[in-house]
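User: Structure with adenosine-5'-diphosphate, tokens only please.
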Amino acid sequence: MTSPDNHHPRDFKSLPLQPALLKNLQDLGYQRLTEIQAAALPAIVEGRDVIGQAKTGSGKTVAFGLGLLHKLNVERFRVQALVLCPTRELADQVARELRKLARAIHNIKILTLCGGMPFGPQIGSLKHGAHIVVGTPGRIEDHLRKGNLDLANVDTLVLDEADRMLDMGFQEVLDQILEQLPEERQTLLFSATYPKTIDALAGRVLRKPVKVEVAAAH
Ligand code: ADP
Ligand code: MG
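Assistant:
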């Protein structure tokens, strides 16, 4: 277990991120890292699996978003990152933040796939392709089962608000999605709480994870 301390970077510039991403962070007015970012980003950028425990509003989206954008190859028009969120509202929030972070990457396509939305436009968007898919487990699994979505090239999986996903009964659906993902991948799991069920999920889904915990929002 690590917690933020003086050994952690304080600003984005001290991270080995692509210059275009760093420049964009500056344009967005992001300078200092939040605690969870300082604790998690070095391991994330290194490609390690990470379990991050931190409350809402602590800056988790920027932590995993920079990790997946940093290694994304925009020339390769395949789904390279999958972000699973418990609700449509959260998925939309994450997609919005990722689009802000990705402004410096031209032609990047980020697609949201959530339940409660009509299938037609989602299928149309999937035919055009995407680099990043953000969505809720039920709808993602639905598209997988129907052959609309190919996750064979995913090299980053993010489970955002994992505790809420389990509370909502997504365990089985998550397992079905996980079966469709390459074993060779980076997995980042974020959760506000850390009950035994999350520990069990992490044990099955992550490989030698680095665990970072931040008590309160920044
Ligand atoms: P969480 O996922 O932990 O709830 P978010 O990633 O959505 O938190 O971040 C919360 C808010 O803080 C967002 O509006 C985001 O733009 C902002 N934010 C995140 N990191 C930083 C930072 N390093 N500096 C300034 N603002 C930040
Ligand atoms: Mg969040």
